[in-house]
């Protein structure tokens, strides 16, 4: 394994070199105190691993790592720092391999052992070459599926890295400004610290996605980032494209509607309570609600009343405050002379609205119910 060392502290640099020379399989390809010289060396020489000081004169070590990865995206980087308080704070939030000065041999060995040079259980390169699509499930629990097999969960060492990846996945194909990401994740930090943390998280995301490089491309510019997907099927995108195309509900298309609505098994990114996901969650729920009403109304117009009742009941279960669904059921029950069911449905709606909003049902519903009740009590 060819290794490069960068540290402005010559004593620390020599000490780390001595430690590494005792480890079989490690070849010191160069040691530097000048960041510019490291860039040149990485361009011209094959290098596997860089030990990089986080505190360098005139340059932030984490930002330098980001720049280096633009040259060699497969390069592995281990951060070295003499500031324990900084390391603990930064790396607890955005965990990467790091070493505290003075470097201890046992800690160094643990770091090297954590660098995984093996492939995943699935031969991702082979599957990518066979043009196998990667499937991503965002409705319900987040999953990735390849060759009809569920892949192991992505290993995030911090919640910040996981959240940023999922946010970028939600904004896939769109340019996201760095300032937007900082406001999203670190609004309380001063700018230099926030940018440093952002570069750290981006670095970790790149490393986590390395094994899926055929499917994910995270590119950056001076101002921001774009996460592009290649040969990836995202369930929520497939579902929304069908819904927004708005084919009429007919005998020919109802099967497609049923199949697509089954994709919406649960809420968008159900297991995460990110505030930015909630607005998307609600938007998708409204699309589901609108489509469910269209299907229920078509069932009624096609004289498939039992299926309409099933759909309205499903709406009431998923969206208890959807008054129109309760009202539709009340009218169906009334038409079938099921007075008990009418009363039960109305009382259920009243109880739900009182509990949620301390309000009564809309006037048109209470008026209809009062008229119906008066007519059937006479």
Automatic annotation (TrEMBL):
Record-linked Pfam families: BTAD, Response_reg
Keyword Transcription regulation included in the entry's annotation: yes
Domain Response regulatory: 2-116
Biological process according to GO: phosphorelay signal transduction system; regulation of DNA-templated transcription
Residue positions, PTM 4-aspartylphosphate: 53
Keyword annotations: DNA-binding, Phosphoprotein, Transcription, Transcription regulation, Two-component regulatory system
InterPro entries the record matches: AfsR-DnrI-RedD_regulator (IPR051677), BTAD (IPR005158), CheY-like_superfamily (IPR011006), Sig_transdc_resp-reg_C-effctor (IPR016032), Sig_transdc_resp-reg_receiver (IPR001789), TPR-like_helical_dom_sf (IPR011990), WH-like_DNA-bd_sf (IPR036388)
Gene3D superfamilies, A to Z: 3.40.50.2300, Tetratricopeptide repeat domain (1.25.40.10), Winged helix-like DNA-binding domain superfamily/Winged helix DNA-binding domain (1.10.10.10)
Record-given protein name: Response regulator
Species: Paenibacillus woosongensis
Lineage: Bacteria, Bacillati, Bacillota, Bacilli, Bacillales
């Amino acid at each position: 394994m060819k290794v490069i060392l960068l540290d402005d502290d010559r004593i620390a640099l020599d000490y780390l070199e001595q430690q590494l020379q005792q480890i079989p399989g490690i070849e010191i390809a160069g040691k530097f105190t000048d960041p510019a010289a490291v860039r040149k060396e990485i361009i011209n020489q094959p290098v596997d691993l860089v030990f990089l000081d986080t505190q360098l004169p005139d340059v932030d070590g984490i930002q330098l790592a980001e720049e280096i990865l633009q040259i060699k995206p497969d390069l592995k980087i281990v951060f070295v720092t003499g500031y324990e308080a900084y390391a603990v704070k930064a790396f607890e939030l955005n965990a990467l391999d790091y070493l505290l000065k003075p470097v201890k041999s046992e800690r160094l060995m643990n770091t090297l052992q954590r660098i995984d040079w093996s492939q995943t259980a699935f031969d991702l390169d082979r599957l990518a070459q066979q043009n196998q699509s990667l499937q991503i499930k965002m409705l319900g629990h987040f999953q990735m599926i390849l060759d009809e097999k569920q892949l192991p969960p992505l290993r995030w060492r911090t919640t910040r890295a996981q959240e940023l990846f999922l946010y970028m996945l939600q904004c896939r194909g769109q340019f996201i400004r760095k300032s937007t990401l900082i406001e999203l994740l670190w609004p309380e930090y001063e700018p230099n610290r926030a940018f440093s943390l952002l570069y750290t998280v981006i670095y970790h995301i790149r490393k986590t996605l390395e094994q899926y490089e055929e499917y994910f491309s995270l590119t950056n510019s001076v101002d921001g980032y774009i996460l592009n997907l290649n040969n990836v099927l995202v369930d929520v995108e497939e579902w929304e494209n069908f819904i927004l195309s708005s084919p009429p509900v007919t005998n020919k298309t109802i099967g497609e509607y049923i199949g697509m609505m089954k994709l919406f098994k649960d809420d968008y990114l159900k297991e995460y309570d990110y505030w930015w996901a909630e607005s998307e969650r609600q938007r998708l729920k409204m699309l589901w609600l609108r489509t469910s009403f269209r299907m229920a109304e078509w069932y009624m117009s096609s004289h498939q009343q039992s299926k309409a009742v099933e759909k309205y009941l499903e709406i009431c279960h998923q969206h208890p405050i959807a008054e129109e669904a309760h009202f539709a059921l009340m009218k169906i029950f009334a038409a079938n002379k099921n007075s008990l069911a009418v009363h039960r449905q109305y009382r259920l709606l009243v109880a739900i609205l009182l509990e949620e909003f301390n309000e009564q049902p809309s006037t048109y519903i209470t008026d209809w119910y009062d008229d119906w009740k008066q007519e059937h009590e006479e």
